[in-house]
UniProtKB/TrEMBL annotation:
Pfam (any one): IFT20
Chain segments annotated as coiled-coil in the UniProt record: 80-111
A GO cellular component annotation in the UniProt record: ciliary base
Main location: other
The keyword Coiled coil is assigned to this record: yes
GN (gene name): Ift20
Keyword annotations: Cell projection, Coiled coil
Protein name: IFT20 protein
Location relative to the cell: Cell projection, Cilium
InterPro entries (UniProt xref): FT20
GO biological process terms, semicolon-separated: cilium assembly; protein localization to cilium
Length: 133
């Protein structure tokens, strides 16, 4: 006990295996415990970084997928607009064609009425010619 006190005064200590140490066994034990806690903390930090990294990667993938879907939607909307414009142009062409055919029908109707009148006049002339004989 006196030897330990003398050693302690000189800053030397005996551990549980009676080895001579510069550091107090309790301080050495606390230092080792702190080292283990630091190691565990670092492991947790590394694990956290991995989780955050994979989360960032996932968010990036989702952002790319969302951008891709947005572009598809814009493309589909533009396609629909162009189809609608084509249909509108087609409809205008058909309306013009209908108007043209109606005018043609009116001309034929007038021509037909005129021909019917001429035929009636000619028949009347023929009848008069025959009765004169």
């Amino acid at each position: 006990e006196m030897a330990q006190a003398a050693l302690g005064a000189a800053g030397l200590h005996l551990d549980e295996l009676n080895k001579l140490r510069v550091l107090d066994p309790e301080a050495a034990q606390q230092t080792a415990q702190l080292r283990e806690e630091c190691r565990a903390f670092l492991d947790k930090i590394v694990e956290f970084q991995k989780i955050v990294g994979s989360l960032i990667e996932l968010v990036d993938q989702l952002a790319k997928a969302a951008e891709s879907e947005k572009m598809k939607a814009i493309g589909a909307r533009n396609l629909l607009k162009s189809i609608a414009k084509q249909r509108e142009a087609q409809e205008q062409q058909l309306q013009a064609l209908i108007a043209e055919k109606k005018m043609q029908l009116e001309r034929y109707r007038v021509e037909y009425e005129t021909l019917c009148k001429i035929e009636a006049d000619q028949n009347e002339f023929i009848d008069q010619f025959i009765f004169q004989k």
